[in-house]
Design brief:
Oligomer: single chain
CATH topology: Rossmann fold
Order of helices and strands: EEHEHEHEHEHEEEHEEHHHE
Strand content: 15-25%
Radius of gyration: 19 Å
CATH architecture: 3-Layer(aba) Sandwich
Largest sheet: 7 strands, mixed
Structural class: alpha/beta
Distance between the termini: 28 Å
Helix content: 10-25%
């Protein structure tokens, strides 16, 4: 029975009970809070590494015209059942869509195949919004994944990129040596918030809004960034390296999706409320703007209720 198996998100059932997920009921889900800021009516949206599909369900409820969610087919992902990740998730996803009364496309991306290569070769095209959250610290190469999703975003589109970070103003990435940062066996990287900023701009993603929380010790935490996809990189005035590297290095030419650069589709997707949109520098932002409380929340949590619309 579905109530007897493992769930990532908590999902309300018809009887008023819940399929219980792994997170505290009052924990903020920062990507969800950022998603609620965007006007998705009539838009085309993608959620990468969707688990049971909380985010694409909310995208569909927010009026998106087309919603795609994807995950990689990793074998032996669930040793207790012997199922791979897809066969484990598929019945739960069907249940979530049934309970919410929405439909969206669930696409399986073969393991070790860049997601843009798979989706573009299968005719999905580009999207107004791409959500890539909760993944970058779980992969060997975060840059490869940023490069893999960038070709999927229309010029002028949004990306919500969220990851564990360290709150230092230096371009380094801490490795989870001996589980010193987090005991999770598949957590590897904590980029500094300033490096995270640089990598986004390297991949032509301009940070325009952000939410963040700190953990104990307070120099670590989680950040979720809304980025505007631009046609070119966003270097600082003194940076003569970024553009040359982003457009002409071997990996960027092969993996960064340059086959679609220069002929990207365009979009005019906007925030729900009028905002004075500008590039924000993430390290000063986290020094000057109050963080979002990690616990103690009743809205935008990891609980999907049947009546939720954002």
């Amino acid at each position: 029975m579905l109530s007897d198996i493992w769930w990532y998100y908590t999902v309300e059932r018809e009887d008023g009970g819940f399929y219980q997920g792994v997170y505290p009921d009052d924990m903020i889900l920062l990507p969800r809070a950022n998603l609620a800021k965007l006007d998705l009516r009539g838009r085309k949206c993608l959620d990468v590494c969707t688990m049971e599909g909380l985010m694409p369900t909310l995208m569909a409820k927010a009026g998106a015209a087309e919603v795609v969610a994807c995950d990689s087919a990793r074998p032996s992902g669930y040793p207790l059942t012997g199922n791979d990740t897809i066969s484990e998730m598929t019945p739960k996803i069907a249940e979530v869509k049934r309970l919410a009364g929405v439909d969206w496309r669930y696409e399986v991306v073969p393991e070790r195949v860049p997601v843009a290569q798979h989706l573009l070769s299968h005719g999905f095209g580009q999207f107004d919004l791409v959500n890539l959250s909760g993944l970058l610290y779980h992969v060997f190469s975060p840059m490869h994944w940023l490069g893999a999703i960038r070709p999927l975003i229309r010029d002028g589109g949004f990306a919500i990129i969220s990851t564990n970070v360290a709150y230092y103003d230096s371009p380094v990435m801490a490795f989870n040596e001996m589980g010193s940062l987090q005991p999770n066996l598949t957590t590897y990287w904590y980029p500094t918030i300033s490096l995270f900023d640089y990598l986004l701009r390297y991949f032509r993603l301009c940070p325009v809004d952000a939410l963040y929380s700190r953990s104990q010790p307070p120099d670590k935490g989680y950040a979720s960034i809304i980025c505007r996809a631009l046609p070119d990189v966003i270097p600082d005035p003194q940076d003569t390296w970024m553009r040359e590297s982003a457009w002409h290095s071997w990996d960027s030419m092969w993996y960064g999706g340059l086959e679609v650069a220069g002929r990207s589709e365009a979009t005019d997707i906007r925030f729900k409320a009028p905002v004075e949109e500008r590039r924000i520098a993430l390290f000063p932002f986290t020094e000057q703007v109050a963080e979002t409380p990690f616990l103690g929340n009743t809205k935008h949590t990891a609980i999907l209720r049947r009546a939720d619309t954002e």
